[in-house]
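PROTEIN DESIGN WORKSHEET
SECTION A - STRUCTURE
LENGTH: 367
TOKENS:
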């Protein structure tokens, strides 16, 4: 962990402080864990809208006549199948099928792509891409521009209504997992529509040549009468957990593979060879031994990462993520369990501080 005094600040830091952000160190940055409160922020995104500073995320750019072919080999999803303006969610794998990272791949042009990677993995991913690129050869230019970009997101049912007030882009023409470019708050920006909170929403990428302050201020002003509020890391985590979106470092990492994590739909085993393909084919043929499941607690105990999971007196897995669900008003969690215990409605127990608490495997997403 970076010492607090040495943590970086995003270019919106002063605005976050003015909004009442309670700052913590995360991924080398000072970021708000909350503003008005995690539950209030969470429910605002589910009912109206929330605004996020996500500038700590990483942005990698690849271009050249072999860029698509390289990414098709590097990533598990079908990169060559992307048309300009389209985005895909994809894992990047080790040769044994373990997950380097889960990321978004944007096709920006005929020979140009952007990868948006998790903040905690920027250095590792950068090294991984460079190493694979050296081995691949071909005509590809690569640059890590993570420090150049500001990323602002507006998420929630009223997101389109809010963002439309400050952009010349026809937002209704941007489909889910597509992007467009234009003016936002009088500045050049790229807008995508991935809705990573599980709600409708837009992500606004601002490069180093544009002023991000007018964009933030314009969005805040546009959302004032529509009950939009700023949202921190705490609610971002509860929002994604309710939708069973995997968090790298918790639910997926080097020791897990996409098939057992429930994101096998992002893996195109029938495409040309990609890193990790052979290992995944063997895993699929042998059958899964465990599976990432959602579960609901049957009392008020809150599960947390690495708590043991039991069934029938036997330890059958462990919790990877857990929280109190603001939407459902019950504690929920994710965890890997033996495949035999993975069916919905299976009774399990979560051990919390030496005591086992009843829970039940539940259908996820939870909301």
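SECTION B - SEQUENCE
RESIDUE ASSIGNMENT:
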């Amino acid at each position: 962990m970076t010492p607090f005094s040495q943590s970086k600040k995003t270019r919106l830091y002063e605005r976050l402080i003015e909004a009442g952000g309670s700052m913590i160190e995360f991924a080398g940055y000072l970021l708000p864990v909350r503003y008005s409160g995690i539950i209030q922020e969470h429910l605002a995104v589910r009912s109206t809208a929330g605004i996020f500073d996500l500038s700590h995320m990483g942005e990698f750019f690849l271009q050249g006549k072999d860029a698509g072919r390289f990414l098709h080999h590097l990533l598990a999803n079908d990169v060559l199948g992307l048309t300009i303006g389209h985005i895909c969610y994809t894992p990047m794998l080790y040769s044994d099928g373990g997950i380097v990272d889960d990321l978004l791949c944007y096709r920006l042009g005929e020979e140009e792509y952007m990868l948006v990677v998790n903040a905690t993995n920027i250095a590792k991913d950068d090294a991984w891409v460079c190493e694979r690129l050296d081995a691949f050869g071909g005509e590809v230019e690569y640059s890590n521009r993570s420090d150049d970009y500001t990323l602002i997101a507006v998420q929630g049912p009223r997101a389109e209504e809010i963002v439309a007030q400050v952009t010349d882009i026809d937002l209704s023409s941007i489909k889910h997992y597509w992007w467009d470019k234009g003016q936002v708050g009088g500045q050049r920006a790229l807008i995508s529509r991935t809705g990573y909170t599980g709600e409708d929403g837009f992500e606004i990428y601002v490069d180093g040549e544009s002023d991000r302050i007018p964009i933030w201020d314009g969005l805040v002003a546009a959302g004032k009468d529509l009950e939009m509020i700023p949202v921190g890391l705490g609610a971002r985590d509860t929002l994604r957990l309710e939708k069973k979106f995997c968090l790298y470092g918790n639910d997926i990492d080097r020791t897990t593979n996409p098939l057992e994590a429930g994101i096998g739909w992002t893996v195109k085993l029938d495409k040309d060879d990609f890193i990790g393909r052979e290992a995944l084919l063997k895993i699929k043929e042998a059958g899964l031994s465990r599976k990432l499941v959602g579960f609901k607690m049957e009392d008020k105990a809150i599960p947390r990462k690495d708590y043991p999971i039991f069934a029938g007196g036997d330890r059958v897995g462990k919790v990877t993520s857990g929280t109190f669900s603001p939407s459902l008003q019950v504690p929920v969690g994710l965890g890997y369990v033996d495949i035999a215990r993975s069916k919905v409605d299976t009774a399990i127990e979560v051990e919390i501080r030496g005591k086992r608490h009843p829970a039940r495997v539940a259908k996820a997403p939870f909301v």
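SECTION C - NOTES
DSSP finds eight helices and 20 strands in the chain.
The chain has three domains: 4-54+149-241, 58-145, 289-367.
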